[in-house]
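ENTRY TYPE: paired fold submission
RECORD: A
CONTENT: sequence, then structure tokens
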Amino acid sequence: MSYQKKHTKTHSTYAFENNTNAVAASQMRNALNKLADSVKGDEKLRNIFENQLDSFFSVFRRYLVEKSSGNTLLWEKIKSPTKEEVIDYGSLKPTHDDISNLSKLAVLKLNGGLGTSMGCVGPKSVIEVRDGNTFLDLSVRQIEYLNRQYDSDVPLLLMNSFNTDKDTEHLIKKYSANRIRIRPFNQSRFPRVLKDSLLPVPSHYDDALDAWYPPGHGDIFESLHASGELDALLAQGREILFVSNGDNLGATVDFKILNHMIETGAEYIMELTDKTRADVKGGTLISYDGQVRLLEVAQVPKEHIDEFKNIRKFKNFNTNNLWINLKAVKRLVESSSLSMEIIPNQKTIKRDGQEINVLQLETACGAAIRYFGGAHGVVVPRTRFLPVKTCSDLLLVKSDLFFLEHGSLKLDPSRFGPNPLIKLGSHFKKVSDFNTRIPHIPKIVELDHLTITGNVNLGKNVTLKGTVIIVCSDGQNIDIPNGSVLENVVITGNLQILEH
């Protein structure tokens, strides 16, 4: 069969340490062959599916090798990056609106995530975040303004997953009259792996969605190439791809970084920003064997976790705002040179009323930095990292701390110091509950820290300053009345004020 022949050569390049790995690889290959055979009558679809299974099998074999060899970084060899490997944003040349390189730029948003963690159905990019605008609306407005302002034609690419592609395809129709070219494409669909048997969960191409997973954003390079979008961009003269998470509202096109990348010939630039106590687990750049690499918390030995979280030693972390040379991507993909560290992600699915443990073998695009020439990090202002992962983040970006300008969030100039630390409890986890309990966003320009847990509701025109802690006891409720000004207070127990 064509799929099995395709693997004959590459399989021999992997040296398995023991017979167990060889057997597991052989069983997986046979199972994938059967999966490929389940596609009937559509040759194009089968070819796409086979290519995805081919990529998955490569990751699976590396996982077996790394698992048995304990392939980890040696802590004593980890060094701080050199002055050439991480530079400060302030050292970049001013641009004075030098826009000559816009014709070489394309922008890509990672759009494969669902809003399930915030209690939403469908793509996370359609959650309303500011003034009636969704994540996707703001991304479109930013690029449209850029194109209108500078008479450019920067395209916006959306890397969807099988979870988000249909909804996104429908949603982007409303932008058809806008001055922007939107190019959606799908990342791979990999089979989940049964943890006990190390065999694929699905047995047929059309098996249930929970049998599959999108393999992390490290799949961007293969998917760009396989979709044809990479060659299309290169044919248009596009050389630089600015990649960011779809939920990072601070990730806007930056001329200084774009021009710096082209002037230096760097093939890859990672934006870093200073760690706070909220970011101690964030991956950071290190120097290892004379090479710049990304160190993730999952790679750190247990006895060194506290050291890794020390913000004095590891001062900054990866924002996942990445600037990548497209010619380099083509070279590395076509030479099969990208082997990013595998992140085993454990999940459970239900079958016949029973929970089954499964594995997702994922990769991260930040880990690819070591394969690109002249790669380095740039430490950028915190304003370029404004992700919305939870409703605590949602409160921040909806507040008067920011104002909206051409699709970009700008910090209120009267704000002094870092953004406030906001922690909302489980009663605020879902967007619907958040909107019910906080129907009117409080004023927080002078807020430093906010913690709210329990059955708490905020009224209109509430102002929060300094440190505010509201902890409601189980079975009780706290209603903060309209017009309240809370400054450096702790409220506990039960509070209900009826207004006359």
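RECORD: B
CONTENT: sequence, then structure tokens
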Amino acid sequence: MAIVSFHSFKTTGPVPLASYMRMCLTGDSGGYYTGAIGQGRDQFGVEGDFVTSPEISQIFGELVGLWFIAEWMSQGRPSQGVQLIEVGPGRGTLMDDMLRTIRRFPAMADSIEHVFMVEASPQLRDAQKKLLCGPDAQFTQCDFGVQSNGRHIGKPVVWAESLKSIPIEAEKVPFIVAHEFFDTLPIHTFQSAPAAVTPPRPSSTTSPGGSDKSTETDSAQAHPSPPPSSSYEWREMMVSPTSPAAMASAQAKSKAAGREELAEEFQLILSSKPTRHSRHLPESSPRYQRLKHTPGSVVEICPDASLYAADFATRIGGTSSVRKSRPSGAALILDYGTSDTVPINSLRGVRHHRLVSPFSAPGLVDLSADVDFTAIAEAATLASDGVEVHGPVPQADFLELMGIRERAEILCKASGAKKDTADGAEKSWKRLVDRGPSGMGKVYKALAILPENDGRRRPVGFGGDVAPS
């Protein structure tokens, strides 16, 4: 049974795709990540809807932790003011493995003031608290939200409902990780179409004989000329309810074909005229502007992704309003998406580890779309002159340069693992670096936002090494 109802659509009419995604994922009344799945239901893992990299192998989180340790070393080993921030932390598995790794480097662990978990879901916040702070840990109120004492490095773990709840402070050193976060942010989809022609209003004059004499606009109104070939505009793809009759027909065809498919309760339609989003968002970058005059061109744009990237860059590099004596910190983004093209038709739904229509069972299906890494890089560098961007690089390259193969061998030897355990561990890490057409090592990518250094240093995992401090 769908959680997102038809009622709001009956009131407002078709809504932008981004609005639909936001209602389905984080809506107050039954969003996928905010309670709709029901008590005791877990989105993650074998029993849930999908498995993430940290759930596949502990090595993933360990290597991400090592990456931040390397950055901390390369930036002079700051002794205080370090913030560890994760956006969209899921069950907390990634941060748990990161902190367990950082604990082995006491100087860095001591430099951390707070561990921030940016999480909107009360259910997920509770699961994260149990993992990071212990099953009996309690929340206490703090300036940023709620907090509890972490069990790994003894520092406060703070939960904030949004990144805006964490002040941007010039003297802080923010280390930010975003794993499979950007792909869940709402997207707008636009299609290029011939611009609508508004015919001139007919004017009438009275002839000397007293009869009305219409101008040539009468003919033009009856047979409007097609728009010039260069006259195109962006139209927005909107989400509208599917009619009950169409749903019944689709289900009947599915049943006749021997398929069990969820009914598509909603559908995408093209707006009949420009919207406020289509007038502005596709004009925000030359990448989209160049596609406007190709009929039928489709672009997906995620404004929230650009806002988050700009926030990361501001925290790291500073701006005219946030003046840092020296840029510091780093952001690591790991997700799937395109590195040199604009995403199109990438919206997908997942339920029980199977691809399903994103317009079926809204609120019960996970929705995601390809990440536009180029747009993220543009937003970061435009937001702050104090940052530079590295990547994206395939996840396989990143993890192999970070030493995933060597770490897997050490784990198997240290644990004296039985053959079936060792085989399982090997299968797990190889899954993370699979370079096949749809393999995680190829589809997923890593991008880093670092303090500007005029290209003198590349970070580890991106072709560089730890810089001497």
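NOTES ON RECORD B: Residues 204-229 have pLDDT under 50 and may be disordered. Residues 408 and 426 are 7 Å apart (CA to CA).
STATUS: closed
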